[in-house]
Structure formats: C-alpha cells, structure tokens
Amino acid sequence: MSSVLYDAPGPRAKRRNVVLSVVFVALLALLVWFVWDAMDGKGQLEWALWKPFTESNAWSTYLLPGLANTLKAAALAMVIALPLGAVFGISRLSDHLSVRLPAAWVVEFFRAIPVLLLMLFANEFYDRWTNVTTEQRPIYAVVTGLVLYNASVLAEIVRAGILALPKGQSEAAMAIGLRKNQTMRTILLPQAVTAMLPAIVSQLVVIVKDTALGGVMIGFTELLNARGTLAANYGNPIPSFVIVAIIYIILNFILTSFASWLEQRLRRSKKGTGAVLSADEVEELNPAAVQGSFGTGAGGTI
Amino acid sequence: MFDFLSDYNDPSLLGAFWMTVKLTAVSGLGSLIWGTLLAAMRVSPVPLMRGFGTAYVNIVRNIPLTVIIIFTSLGLADVFGVTLGASDFKVQGFRLAILGLVGYTAAFVCEAIRSGINTVPMGQAEAARAIGLTFSQTLRLIILPQAFRSVIGPLANVLIALTKNTTVAAAIGVAEAAYLMKAMIENEAQTLLIGAIFAFGFVVLTLPTGLFLGWLSKRLAVKR
Amino acid sequence: MKLRKVSAAAAAALVLSITATACGGDGDSDSGSGSGGGDKIKIGIKYDQPGLGLKEPDGTFSGFDVDVATYVAKELGYDADQIDFVETKSADRENALARGDVKLIAATYSITDERKQKVDFAGPYLLAHQDLLVKTDSDITEATDLNGKNLCSVVGSTSAQNVHDDFAPKANLKENSTYSECISSLQNGTVDALTTDDSILAGYAAQAQYKGKFKLAGLKLSNENYGIGVKKGDTETVNKVNAALEKMVSSKAWDKAVADNFGPANYKNEPAPKIGVIVK
Q: Could you tell me which NCBIfam families the record lists for this protein (chain B) (predicted)?
C-alpha cells in the first residue's frame, strides 16, 4: 500500500489528513457555489439553454453524427498509426544508415508540421492524385494527417521504450542465436510496447481529440464542429461546450480504462519492476498509470 | 507570389511568429513548474493531494485544448470575471491563453515527470530514507534531479506539441501565427500557399528545438 | 507465451477494427454511388449562420443563401430534393470550387478582387454592409462612439480588420472564434457591440431566443457584395445563374426571401443589386 518515498501515516498524520480533507471539501463546495452563482447571474443556467440536450433532435441531427465521425476517424487513425509508428521506431534503431537516416527525417519532419496543415495538404493530394470520392475525401485527409503526425510521435515512444530495456535482453537473445530481426520481433518489441503502453495510450487520447481539427478547414463534420452548428441554432455556446467537453472526457476515460485493463493483463506476472510507486498503488490512483515508461503525450492541436 | 506578405503589418509575419515564441516560452516555463508540482502531488503522502493530482490530470488531459482555451475567455473572463487584471482584450487574451496553455500542458508534463520518477531505481529512494531525509527532501534532492535528466526527450515532445498548440490561442484573438494565417486566408484566396508558408515557419521553430533537446537528453542521460 | 498474448490481442483488435471500418466503408460507398447516380447538384453553404445558411434541428436548411441557392438550382433544372447542401468553411471556398466538390457556393461570399482571381462570381444577389449589433437600450449610434467601448468580432474576419485599421482604432476589440460566442459576450455585457455584415447580424437578431433583445445600428461601414461562386472559367454556369437571379428579382421571389429571413429583425435591406454591378 505505501510507497518507498514515505512512511505509512501514523496517528498524527492520519488526523492531519482528515483535517485537510475537510478543509478541501469545504473550499470545493465554496467554489461550486461561486460557479453556480456566477452562471446564474449571467443567465447561463436558464433552462432554455440546456433544454435542447434533453431533446432527441439535438443529438440525432448534430451531436451523434459528429460523434460517429470522430470515432470512425480516430479508430482508423489508431489502427494505421500504431504499426506504422512501430516500423519507424524500429527503423530509427537500424544498423544500416540507409534505413536509419530516412526514418529519422520522416519522423522529425512530420512531427514538426501542424496537423491541421497536414490535413489541408492531404485533402489536396487526394483530390489531385487519387479518385477518392468527394464525400469520402475529408475522412481520408483527416486520417492521413493524424497518421503521419501520430505515427512519428509513436515512433519516438517505441524507440525510447526499446532503448530503455536492459541490455541483457538483447545480449541473451544473441547468445541463444536469434537473428537481429528475431530479437527485435520476439524479444524487444513486445517488452517495449508493454512498458510504453501508458505513453501510447496518452497518444491515442490525442488522436481522438485531434480529429476535431478536421472540422476547422476541410469540412469534416466531427463532434466539435457539429457543436458549432448546434450552438448557432440554439444560441447556447457555453452549455454546448460543457456538454461536448463531458462527452470527450467520457470517451477518453473509456479508452484509458480499456488500456489500463489491457496493461494489467499483459503485466500480470511482473509486479513492481523497479518502480518507485508500488504496483497496486498505481492501480488505485490512476487508470492509465504511467509506470516505468516515458510518458510523452504530445497533446496536439493544429 | 509572396508580395502579399508585405501588406500585413498588424501583426507582420515575423511579429506573429514572435508572439508564438513568446506564448511558447512563457507557457512552457509555467507548465514546467505547475506540472512538477502536480507530479509531486501525485506521489505525495497526503491522499487528498494524490486524489487532486490524479483527477486534474485525467480530466484536463481528456478535453480538447480548443475547448479549454475558449473556456478561459467565454467562461473564466466573461462569466466568472477572471480578467487577470487586464481590461484591454488583447492583453487579457494573451494572459488567458497562457493560463489555458499552462493548465493543459502541465497535465502532460506531470505524466512525463512521473514516468521519470519511475525510472529512478528503488535503491535511491531507500538510501535517501535510510539517511533520514524527509519526503520533500528525498523528492527535491534525490529523486527529481535524476528523474528530470531521464525525461528530457519526452519533455521535448511536449514542448514541440506546445509550440504548435499555441495556434489555438487564435481562437480567442491572440495575434500569433494562426491568427495571421486566418486573416490572410480570408483576404487572399490562396489557402494552400499560405498553409505552406506557415507550415515552413513551424518547421523552422520546432526542428531545432527537437534536435537540440535530443542532443541534450543524450548528454545528460543518467549512466546506469 | 507473453508474446503470443500481445500479438493475439493486437491481431484481434486489428481484425475487429478492420471489419468495423469495412462495414462503415461499404455503407458510405453505397450512399456515395447513390447520390452520384442521379443528377444532383452540390451547393456549398454555411451551416451555422442563422438567417443566411443554417442547419436546423430537423436536418433541413434555412436562410437567405439557402433560398437563393434553391431558386437558382430550380432554374438550372434541379428540384429541391436534387440539391445536396454541403458545408463550405470560409478557408475552403476557393479550393472547393476549383476541385469541383461543389458546383455553386452561396455562403456569405463577398466578391473581392483577390477572390476573382481564383473563382468566377455570378450576381451579386445581395448588398450587405458592415454594421453594429447592440442591445436594444444602447446609445451607440455612430462608429466613432465605439472608441473606448468594447467591441466583438470574429478572428480573421474582414470586419475585425476594418475596425482595427479604419473607423474605430481605439475600440477595445475582443475577437472570438464564432459569432454565437460574440452574441453570448454581448448578451452578458462583456462587450457593447458586435460588428460584421448587417445580413449576418439581422439573422441572429431575428432568432427566436434573441427577439427584442438586440437592434442593428444601421451604419453602412463597408459594402459587401454577396455573389455566387462558380468554378473559374465556367462562364456558361455564371450566365445561367445570373439569368436565374434576374428572374428571382423580377418575380418578387427575392423580396419574399428577404422578408422571410430578415424580416423579424427590422432589417432595412438595400434594393436587389443589379447583376454585374459591384458597389465598392
């Protein structure tokens, strides 16, 4: 239960914790009251502003189609970016300069360009050089932009994960006569991915949120963009932002919870690998605990 | 082809990117401090602080930055009257944008530092405790200095993302790169060319940052 | 052992998502070919501008731009159910025409010299002016009253640039990302006025939830000639659209559309503009 960093709380510390908690809850209640009062004073609590969300039209016309597009684009981008990121990450560790250098350039380049502009260029690319239909093109462009950027970031995560593994792993693999390819595929990559899972999950959360960039210029109707249309109709920008923020929080919470469940399954037999926090404490604190890894989460927009 | 660029003086192209740099620098520093405090909270002995840190990270990280930035203006400033001591909307927008960027980026900094803390071998903390250091001494003198050195790479990722994220500040009228880009697109009807100019600007800003911090992370890596 | 689990999980996830997306893809391509098969016309409009182009809660579209587009499409030989309205964001209008994503664009699209280099315009079909929207009890009547006052507009819009450069350089300008947010700021007293084209302002003032709360100041701070965007070089369509617009005006359908969409806001519209005459 307790961490290596401090003792289990004694009677005095326990008492102090209780006092602190009471004070904190009181402050929190005060804040909630202040927020409620201020919103009431500015007329933001009027039922007319919130009522649309209890009606089916607001959901069936605006929010649900937007949510469906967000989910579709995010799922596609994840499925493509994950393996691509692994490939680039491994390529950057290659012994051959001719593989290592181009991979490094691709990663550094696509990490540097704003995703919004990547989507804009991808949209133009699909129009000029492919025959993707007009209806399909926005989602192609959005997914392409997301894949290029996030695969680059994931590549860095995978690379960091492989480098962080103890040298003994690859030495032992060599000693039993595995080839480089086999070592990477069967020994290093599985361990690196498991160790990096929290960071990878952070990046997946970023993918979900960055689908919103598709609505800024190239007319991809996702959740945040649909909110704009909704707010223009009902004249309720603040309530609509609140509702949409809650939807995003729930969506990403499901994603992180699923990932932490997956992580625990994959990690079962290796509890507390040199981590300062003990495993069960991390479990208790945070569904998507960052454990023994390089959390990156290049939280992106534009 | 590029002559329209000289029509823009308020802000000019360089002025807009300078604003991007200012936003990045100030909110980078701010989120480093706030993120470190959050990370300290998340490993602290007080359950309340751990709970707060966890809740903060999980909520803030899951909201799109656009929503957070617009909330600072529509919510904080308009409804709650938090104007940060500025009645001029330009100044107010800048300060609110920094507040939003710091609040958001700190969640990512916190997670990066926490992973750094996890890479410090257990023995270090045990030894510190054995010689009688308190929790805050252990954290300040032993754990964090080592943790920072091992997460320069991931922090560089966060900084690069932050540089590009400053563009969201345009949503509340801060005159940085994306703000100028919107004005140019509105007037010039040349979306692709303008997009390319700004993409190039961001590559110029972020590539050196990435390369320098990559080099720094190798230099400062803790040899174990 | 562990490896097998990882790869099994990954494979399962991959298969699942591929089947899921494959299904989605099928559905989409069906609907795609369906719409491509019949002769339909695609018209770009705004989705979020009450009175001009708005996607209603029941999924239909309303507004002056929409009415004009529907009339023009009818003259071109398309019934209302053969029109596909597509959302065209401001940044994407020229490219959407150049790519052929849409045949026409009627989306508060002011005719300017820069734009004319990229697209052709039919019309103009409406002469709008930059104006102010203020609370009903406000004492702002002139542009110079704005100096020292709080004013709201949308980031990157020409109206914001005009305020700044020309008529009220000392106004404290708050820039939001959408007009709905500006209205919200105006309503809760953060700003004293909102500026953009009077047609757009009238659309908001006419909305049910704002009725009686705001008024237009009636200033003519700029001239905005709304045209219908057509792909560069497509003179045939431009001529057809112009003929349709002329007919719309002469048959009084134009006046009806103005009254329907802007009427409730007490909007004093300009008479229908002459085709090809751009008021500078």
A: HEQRo_perm_3TM
